[in-house]
Design goal:
It is built from 17 helices and 16 strands. It is α+β, with helices and mostly antiparallel strands. The protein folds into 2 domains: about 130 residues, Penicillin-binding protein 2a (Domain 2); about 350 residues, DD-peptidase/beta-lactamase superfamily (Beta-lactamase, 3-Layer(aba) Sandwich).
């Protein structure tokens, strides 16, 4: 901007020349400058007022349009929003191999309180204590009269409890929508399913997450909205699972056992048809983990998968099968079984004196520790470890429940010859019953490795070959003779050709080392029908004592075997197996005259 000077020199000189007063020129220029500034300020003010007027017009126009829309819209009851509504609550169902329901969802309500809106806190506390006997009036009243503005009263309510709370009529007691996990069969298959609980929670929604078993193993899959309508199908059969749990519970009572475990597995597909661990629990009200004592004393401890035990003589068939596969022995090979067997300062004894020699088959039938140890000496430590590793006995089984990771075998720190000998008959190495089931399935299916699974399969597994079909057939025949003429005579079930091996292992002391003299783990590992094996059954009893005779008996032949036989008798027809008449041996057929 160019400003005009108030006293321009040229005009001043001209005014003086004409005799005029130069100050008049300054006054005139000052007046013109002030008028220009005033005109500029007025123009700026007018522009601002115009813009402000436009803003007011737009605001009032918007309000007017909105009021017109509201006036022309039918009235709707306003609803409050909640931060919890974005929580995804849908969870896929779990079904058995027949499509029967194992786990589903149930819509229910949670109860919360807003103490500042309560009319009669004392009456509300008394009524709630009547509805929920585990709550105390004093604690509720203290919460309702405190400074808290929000508190949970109950996370899950039954329909009857919802109605009872509603009848109180207290405006400060409010309900929030909930979807909870429901196990309609109660404790049945509890160790497989595991359980679920709430994760993130809001007033009107709560996230359901798996806490154990397949619920936790497949948590992401069960919570995937894209698969919410697709149930997770397991390999177990609900009917057979129920029969197993009933028989095991009865067996525990008859044999005075502390606990029990059972596994029924398809030898070709690896499908676990039933898996039980007793005592069990109700996953609808899963108990908390123990804070003291032994974890195995808790009902949530899965003995079939997490429990690792010395399974005793059930391991002997693995030693003999490996020796036959290596060409070291055959069923008729004579073995020195003179007892006791001396190895340095150690002595290996048999349960009874079976004489100075036995054939390899009789070593299994009579269950000779000495004979098995001598066979293991021929195999050697390195080959024994390699064989057990090929069976999966050196690592946890990959079963689809989180507890399986805790079932890692307990192996010797060193593996000298004496360890090779004791491991050959199931001492010095601790594995789970599930490991044993997989090992026996290998023998039953003709010698190929089987990986246990809890998921429904459509075809057999074709795993690594461990032993030849001829070796597997010879091993099965030995196991059959254990039932017909050996330690498992109570395991005979007419029409189903049961084969198996007993195992009785002294239970190790919890502290101080050594073994209890009057506490054992009794196991019967079996397969049926042996002429065309389809299933493997493992039954394990902890600290059993058979007192039904004149003396107390603890060996597996008197405890685990009768329980397994009853279980086979119960479930074989359910599995669709027809009883068969076993052909007699030619030596038993006599020629008679007409």
């Amino acid at each position: 901007m160019i400003r005009t000077p108030l006293r321009p020199l040229a005009r001043i000189l001209e005014a003086r020349a004409r005799g005029e007063n130069p100050d008049a020129i300054e006054r005139e220029n000052l007046r013109l400058r002030h008028e220009g500034l005033r005109d500029s300020d007025r123009s700026r003010a007018e522009s601002r007022l115009f813009v402000l007027g436009l803003c007011f017009f737009a605001a009032f126009a918007t309000i007017g349009v909105r009021m017109g829309v509201l006036a022309s819209t039918p009235p709707v009851e306003p609803r409050t929003s909640s931060a919890g509504v974005e929580i995804a609550t849908q969870r896929a169902e779990i079904v058995d191999r027949q499509g029967r329901l194992l786990a589903t969802n149930l819509e229910t309500s949670a109860l919360y309180a807003q103490p500042q809106t309560m009319v009669d806190p004392a009456r509300a506390a008394q009524e709630l204590a009547r509805i929920f006997p585990d709550m105390k009036v004093e604690d509720l009243l203290e919460d309702f009269t405190g400074k808290r503005k929000f508190l949970w009263v109950r996370k899950v309510l039954s329909p009857e409890q919802i109605q009872a709370v509603h009848d109180i009529g207290e405006p400060g007691l409010l309900f929030g929508n909930r979807e909870m996990r429901l196990y309609p069969n109660g404790a049945l298959a509890s160790h497989i399913l595991g359980g679920a609980s709430f994760g993130r929670e809001g007033v009107n929604a709560a996230e359901v997450i798996g806490t154990a078993g397949v619920e936790k193993m497949f948590d992401d899959r069960l919570r995937d909205p894209a698969k919410a309508a697709e149930p997770l199908q397991l390999s177990i059969d609900l009917t057979i699972q129920s029969a197993m749990e009933q028989v095991l519970a009865s067996g525990m009572g008859l044999m005075n056992a502390k606990s029990a475990a059972g596994i029924l597995m398809d030898v070709h597909t690896g499908e676990v048809i039933a898996l039980a661990s007793l005592p069990d629990f109700d996953p609808n009200d899963r108990p908390p983990p123990p804070t003291k004592g032994s974890p195995s004393d808790s009902p949530i401890f899965n003995r079939a998968v997490q429990g690792v035990y010395e399974l005793g003589s059930t391991f002997k068939i693995f030693t003999v099968a490996q020796a036959m596969e290596l060409g070291l022995v055959n069923p008729e090979t004579i073995i020195n079984t003179a007892s006791p067997m001396q190895w340095g300062k150690h002595k290996i004894r048999d349960f009874k004196n079976y004489g100075p020699t036995l054939s390899v088959e009789k070593v299994i039938v009579k269950s000779s520790n000495v004979g098995t140890a001598r066979i293991a000496q021929q195999i050697g430590a390195e080959r024994q470890q390699e064989f057990l590793r090929s069976l999966g006995m050196m690592e946890a089984t990959p079963l689809e429940i989180v507890e399986a990771k805790g079932g890692k075998p307990l192996l010797p720190k060193k593996w000298p010859e004496i360890t090779t000998m004791t491991v050959s008959y199931g001492h010095g190495i601790s594995t789970s019953p599930l490991h044993l089931a997989a090992g026996y399935a290998m023998i039953a299916n003709g010698g190929t490795k089987v990986t246990p699974t809890l998921l429904r399969q459509g075809m057999p597994q074709y795993g690594e070959r461990i032993i030849s079909e001829q070796t597997a057939a010879a091993a099965r025949q030995m196991l059959r003779h254990v039932v017909t003429e050996g330690t498992a005579s109570f395991g005979e079930v007419s029409g189903y050709e049961v084969a198996g091996k007993t195992g009785t292992a002294d239970k190790p002391k919890e502290t101080g080392g050594g073994y209890h003299k009057d506490k054992v783990i009794a196991t019967f590992a079996s397969m049926f029908p042996v002429s065309d094996p389809k299933y493997v059954l493992i039954v394990t009893l902890d600290e059993p004592v058979n007192t039904m005779g004149t003396e107390a008996r603890r060996t597996a032949g008197w405890t685990a075997v009768p329980v397994a036989a009853e279980l086979i008798r119960r479930v074989a027809p359910l599995l669709g197996l027809k009883p068969q008449i076993e052909p007699s041996r030619l030596a038993d057929i006599k020629l008679t005259s007409n």
